[in-house]
Write a structure and sequence with these properties.
By secondary structure, the chain is an alpha/beta fold. Helix content is about 25%, strand content about 25%. The strands form three sheets. It has a seven-stranded mixed β-sheet with strand order 3-2-1-4-9-6-10, with helices on both faces. Strands 5-11 form a two-stranded antiparallel ribbon. It is globular.
Length: about 230
Amino acid sequence: MILAGGQGSRLRPYTDDRPKPMIEIPGTGTPIIGHQLSWLAAEGVSDVVVSCGHLAGVLQEWLGSAELPLRVTTVVETEPLGRGGGLKYAAAHLPHPDRPWYATNGDIWTRFSLRDMAAFHTERDATATLALARPRIPWGAVETDAFGHITDFIESPPSPYLINAGVYVFSAAFTGLLPDRGDHERTTFPRLARERRLAGFPLPQGAYWRAIDTAKDLTEAAKELSAGRG
């Protein structure tokens, strides 16, 4: 499942006439969702449900005309259900609801082995598994000694914290734990964490990952692609 219903307000004016997953990475001629579908197909995915909302018709039109590497179904959320409610609504349209399934946010551009993540999920008998990334801090950092002297400047160092990378593996039972309305990251995920049924899969060293949230992210993604990283 690709969650593609967000407003993308931080990417305006790009999102004034299209949903965020339809924004093209400069120099590629392909929208973000096109890169996602290619990656999912390469990882062995055969069917994708795209959960639409903001300017859904633009996304549906592109999906209907593009040559896609897998089968795609679109589901339109006609009223705001929240992230958890929207996920549950779209999950009802999965082709195999009795099997585990992947999900990804519609603004994520990444490359890593989903098969390895699925194996990690199974080994831990998890109800849900989140991919975890360690993004680079967008500012330069300063190191000091104990006395307060500056000892070094580090440009865009990696964060000391892991974050939710927006890619998931869910067991079939997970759907029933989602709220009809509301945010699963404030309800379902904390509950599973308390019950030790929520796992975190760190992205492998060197795996490409970027969330496309701002115009700067688009520029950086284009640079990384030209350098052979994306």
